[in-house]
Amino acid sequence: MSAAYIELLQKRIDGLAEKDYDLEVWKNGTALLLSRIYGEGNPYTREVEALKVDFSSWSLRDATSDYNPKETCKRLGREILELSIAELQLPTQEEKAKQTITNMLQDKSGKFAEAIAQKDEQAMLDLLKKENKEYLAGLLVKLLVE
What we know:
By secondary structure, this protein is an all-alpha fold.
């Protein structure tokens, strides 16, 4: 699922470079997508919705001569979506837990990691039955503390 979301977010980033780019249209579509991914009221959606081209006299007066409000909005939009993609690429809590357990139970032969990769419950049970209770209890405590 994350791969599909990442692809859709990348298309939104690519939309920033389109010749007929319209900030309000881009914001609405992007906000809908981000709400679908992260739920209503998430920080990414709020930040996209807050983007606006500021042509006020104060912003233009205080800006350097190369200030381009439209380009600033595009850069901010790109940054928001790139951060969102990076978050989607982070391992889930479940993946982290599996990796932690796998690391703790590493045996010299590598059979436990292989059994986990193949989701072979019987092989995992057989390997765990060979371990003594104190060792397994210690691993469980370490896991719960992490």
